[in-house]
Design goal:
CATH architecture: 4-Layer Sandwich
Helix content: 25-40%
Order of helices and strands: EEHHEEHEHEEEEHEE
CATH superfamily: Metallo-dependent phosphatases
Largest sheet: 6 strands, mixed
Distance between the termini: 26 Å
Number of strands: 11
Shape: globular
Number of helices: 5
Length: 233
């Protein structure tokens, strides 16, 4: 089974890139899934998210929000006759808004999900590289892949751990790269120069789709291959 994961989608340029490039990637690589959306620390930026959390089971918020938070942190996706795919979303705590400890929650959550499927894809939305690596190492052999998000810079450390878990510290971002992490450059510079609030408008040029492609053994759930994706629009 081949699963594609798309890095953080920034603004309208990022959404357009997904609509344009994803069909081509599906054909080019024979991609089977995943048909789900994960999130992170910008989850609550738009009020419409409450409707998605309530009504769309394929839309995930970080699993480690406190009990009672709307929505869900994991889902099982069934794609026709293919084996079911478990998708999980966690958020780190280092340099991030305080949530429950993902390390103490993940093992039991993964164990429960493995009763439904051995194929499990994890999005670890975190700032600190060490936190992402440690989290993935803890889950090695229990999930198919752990791919990091949040920093918007695609890393070059794709690998498969000894237990069969594919790993990439950050998938990068999908959107305009002729800017500062998807935003216009000048307001960001002025923020650093003056320490005054600035409105960070989405940039426009050099739109690229970033992500990762993971091939998984359907019988065991172990990763066979992981490669970075970078497709210009």
């Amino acid at each position: 089974m081949k699963i594609i994961f798309i890095g953080d989608i920034v603004g309208q340029p990022g959404r357009r890139a997904v609509a344009k490039v994803l069909p081509k990637l599906r054909l080019q690589h024979g991609i089977h899934g995943v048909d789900a959306i994960t999130s992170g620390d910008h989850l609550w930026d738009q009020k419409e998210v409450m409707g998605l959390l309530a009504n769309e089971k394929r839309f995930l918020r970080p699993f480690n929000y406190p009990a009672g938070t709307p929505g869900q942190g994991s889902a099982v996706i069934q794609l026709g006759t293919l084996p079911a795919i478990g998708v999980m979303n966690f958020q780190g705590r280092t340099f991030m808004p305080p949530l429950e400890n993902p390390f103490t929650l993940a093992l039991d959550a993964v164990k429960a999900l493995r009763e439904k499927t051995k194929i499990i894809f994890v999005d670890m939305h975190a700032e600190a590289t060490s936190e992402k690596i440690a989290f993935a190492r803890m889950l090695d052999g229990l999930v198919s892949a752990v791919v990091g998000t949040h920093t918007h810079v695609q890393t070059a450390d794709e690998q498969i751990f000894p237990g069969g878990t594919a790993y990439l510290t950050d998938a990068g971002f999908t959107g305009p790269h002729d800017g500062c992490l998807g935003r216009e450059i000048e307001p960001v510079i002025q923020r650093f120069l003056t320490n005054m609030p600035r409105r960070f408008e989405v940039a426009k040029e050099r739109v690229i789709l970033h992500g990762a492609l993971v091939e998984v053994d359907e019988a065991t759930g172990k990763a066979l291959k992981i490669q970075r994706v970078a497709e210009a629009v």
